[in-house]
Design goal:
single chain, alpha/beta, Undecaprenyl pyrophosphate synthetase, 6-stranded mixed β-sheet, 6 helices, globular
Length: 177
């Protein structure tokens, strides 16, 4: 997952440039053996409480898109919703009434079409502050921070994060004995 920029930054990217960047980043993930890449806004940049325009009562909901790398090895989820609480509420609205609400059901709608939480999250921003868009992805994800603006993001930045990730020893909360 790459978390970068504000909703306003995303809106300023033209369709061709954003699709090209998404596809290039997806290729980095595919080459590393990943099947999913989610691109998400860091924060709304629209109001003081961090909620997206639609959640705050103005504007329309951000458009979520799905792309695929040319070779079909990686699905790219472009999700500009910056408020993790709003994303969770929206996911719960998509659960059929008859479904038992458990971890599997919630994961299924929250990360759709991916079926698991991300292993790696590249956050373009300061390491002193977690973006509100990451409320639900923090449990088992490895975080890599980079002081790069969305407009300056290149595939090499994601490749550096992947290389960093491969050098880590994941313990999932366990202690060394």
């Amino acid at each position: 997952m790459v978390v970068a920029g504000t909703r306003r930054d995303w809106d300023e990217l033209d369709e061709r440039a954003s699709s090209g960047l998404a596809t290039a980043l997806g290729q980095v993930v595919a080459d590393a053996g990943g099947a999913w890449l989610t691109l998400r806004a860091y924060e709304s940049g629209e109001d003081d409480d961090g909620r997206d325009d639609a959640a705050a009562g103005g504007g329309t909901a951000p458009v979520r898109r799905h792309l695929t790398t040319p070779d079909g090895r990686c699905t790219i989820i472009v999700d500009p919703v910056s408020d993790g609480r709003e994303r969770f509420a929206e996911a719960m609205r998509h659960l059929p009434p008859a479904v038992v609400v458990d971890e599997k059901a919630v994961t299924g709608v929250l990360y759709e079409p991916a079926d698991v939480e991300p292993d790696l999250v590249l956050v373009l921003g300061p390491p002193t502050r977690l973006p509100p868009s990451l409320v639900w992805e923090l449990a088992y994800s490895e975080l890599v921070f980079s002081p790069v603006a969305l407009s300056d993001l290149r595939p090499e930045h994601l490749q550096q994060a992947v290389d960093d990730f491969h050098g880590r020893r994941r313990r999932f909360g366990g202690l060394d004995t």
